[in-house]
Amino acid sequence: MDIKDLKNIKTIADTESFSKAADALFISQPALSQAIKRLELELGLTLFYRDRSRVIPTEAGEHLIKKAIPILSAFEKLQRELAQFNHLEHNTISLGISQFYGHHMLSNALAAFKDYHDNLHVNIVEGESHFLERQIILGHLDLGIFPTPIYSSQLVSTPIVKEEILLAINEKNTKAMELAQSLSQQNEPISLEGFSEFPFILLKPHLKLRTVVNAICEEHHFTPKAILETENLDTCYSLTKENYGLTLLPNTIRKNKADSSIHFFRIQSKLNMRDLVIVALPEMASKLQLKEIAGVMAKKY
Fold first, then answer.
1. Selecting from 2.60.40.420, 1.10.10.10, 1.10.630.10, 3.30.450.20, what CATH number does the domain 3-76 have?
2. Would you say the CATH fold of 82-150+276-300 matches that of 3-76?
3. Predicted local distance difference test score (pLDDT) of residue 277
4. N or C terminus: fewer CB in 10 A for the chain?
5. Nearest to 264 by CA among 125, 175, 200, 171
6. pLDDT single digits (tens) 18-28
7. Torsion (CA) 201, 19, 216, 245 in degrees, nearest 10
């Protein structure tokens, strides 16, 4: 039994699912199942009851998880401390950011860091925000830039700017444009309900913005018809530019990719505003003066 085994059993217990735990651990479900079977054989114990809907720890499993929690916490804390010694002594930090935000605002972020930390070397890691959160907690990254919500209570976040989610329509889609323009009065938000039959280009279901988009559409009493799904917001934009369908995008992309063929419309919703934040563990946020850096980035946005 090693630290990886402890991480596996705790994640399964937290998610009550082998498949969800495998996603959180970034391994395949068969590999996770084999690891648990190996551990159960090694210990001569059954650690989980399995049924079709959920996975529940046995009494032995619960005892092991209870003992594993402080061990994992201490191990992760040690990893973070060692990473900080290495990075700060060598004037180096590691920054996690999605490909989309890396494309649209990384240069502004680097300029803001330079204003506060001259000669600082920044290593960039691209990834989806769930993955980046975990890497920060484990000490593999010092900080990240991505949108809310932040899922881990161990992390602190400092707002940079607010993003608004907008409906994007190609002007060649005359039916959708006429409907949107008829609903829009002096840039007032519009209802999406009339767009329920139009094809949409959306992010894949496991991604954060797709969850928000689904919830916004649910507010307007429909489920969007996704004809294409991607992991990249720039792909949503480019396919809308080619008039494959409608999409919903953060206004960051409108600020950085002006194209007269695509028109953006504000949406009636309680869910279409979110913060873009800098995320770190508390000690790193203090050392790097993230509040001040966020203020500089907001001015450059």
1. 1.10.10.10
2. no
3. 93
4. N
5. 171
6. 888 888 888 88
7. 10
Provide the mean pLDDT of the chain.
87
Model confidence at 118, pLDDT cuts 50, 70, 90, reads: low
**Can you read off the two tokens belonging to residue 195?**
């767009």
Q: Which helix (H) or strand (E) holds 251?
A: helix 251-256
What pLDDT, in 10s, does the model give residues 221-233?
999 999 999 999 9
Question: For residue 84, is pLDDT > 60?
Answer: no
Query: Is the pTM here over 0.70, yes or no?
Result: no
| CA distances, 44 to each of 6, 7, 38, 187 (Å) | 16, 19, 10, 66
Span 129-137, average pLDDT: 91
Backbone angles phi, psi at 176, to 5 degrees: -65, -40
Element (DSSP H or E) covering residue 239: helix 233-241
Q: Position of tokens 């061990």?
A: 71
Residue whose C-alpha is closest to residue 152's, from 243, 268, 277, 50: 277
What is the per-residue burial (b if ≥16 Cβ within 10 Å, else e) of 286-300? ebbebeebbebbeee
| Per-domain residue ranges of the chain | 3-76, 82-150+276-300, 162-274
Give the whole-angstrom CA distance, residue 174 versus residue 186.
20
**CATH number 3.40.190.10 is the correct assignment for the domain at 82-150+276-300:** yes
CATH no. for 162-274: 3.40.190.290
Measured over the CA atoms of residue 149, residue 153, residue 155 and residue 157, the dihedral's sign is positive
SS3 (DSSP) at 245: coil
